[in-house]
């Protein structure tokens, strides 16, 4: 398998797996998911050895060729079905119009597949062949077979181009409209591919070769690959903001683990579930948003528990300590919170807690993302030298005070 085929195959399977949960939840997304699944499955037999293995296993000469071209028909049908359903739902239309679009999207590919299977069965294929027309260039039945699926593919690409272009001109999110234009560009190139393929077949039948064989093969591969890439990128663009948010929330979840772990060690009652190793936690990509939400709550719970161990005097010393370090503004406020929190935590763990009046947090986020961002800044300050030094000095001061009090007691 070439590097390009391998890369395309991996990308198609990645998109298929990524879209699977959404397709499971929403039936409107299933057609597009099915298109990527069919294409990803087809790429598993993109190489000649894989194709020959499939033919030997099934026991039918050139069965892999039929499977690949049937997969192209099915994938194109799924794309047209997705665009037709989405375009119909995005504008006022009667039920009759929607039913007509759906009927065409089912009947035409079904008839095409029936014709292809019939012609394939009628064709004389005495020998194994990956490329049917190269092996049997003068077989009229095979020529009709290839023209049948090429014609359907061209019709499907033309229909998809029209639907995606019309949909992209309606009001909607900018990324959605840009993605639809990329799909339109990809399907337009698909029309060029179908026209080129059909014309080369006819020329070959007339024993005319305007393009060298190697150049024609390379051009066919390019014209087939580019539409696939453009449709893949275009259909994924509307999901980019959600994907980006999911990635950022996952990063926040991982980065907040050290702060959560350090605080929950001193206040284990905040943990909703048993503690997991950091690597195990990082490798779990399920329910990222809910876990991040829970992690921020548990960190805030730990801060509330330790809040009473940081009287006003400790907070004032923390503010002076941060000011002496040269910090000002928001960074100084965050560092001061980190200093008293770290000091309260270390004192609590050492059994040197001193009761104080709980204070409201100086900073809090309005939503999950801003809250996670604030806690990340707090985490950075919590583990820096300013906070660790202040906490160490605070514990030493409390220890010295307790020793003095103990020594003065008769």
Any overview of this molecule?
With 410 residues, the protein is mainly α. It is built from 17 helices and no strands. The protein has helices spanning 3-25, 30-43, 48-58, 63-89, 95-122, 132-135, 140-168, 174-205, 213-236, 240-255, 257-266, 278-283, 288-307, 312-324, 329-349, 368-382, 385-408. Helix 14 crosses helix 15 and helix 15 (329-349) crosses helix 17.
Topology:
Layout: H1 3-25, H2 30-43, H3 48-58, H4 63-89, H5 95-122, H6 132-135, H7 140-168, H8 174-205, H9 213-236, H10 240-255, H11 257-266, H12 278-283, H13 288-307, H14 312-324, H15 329-349, H16 368-382, H17 385-408
Helix pairs in contact: 1-2, 2-4, 4-5, 4-7, 5-7, 7-8, 8-9, 10-13, 10-16, 11-13, 13-16, 14-15, 15-16, 15-17
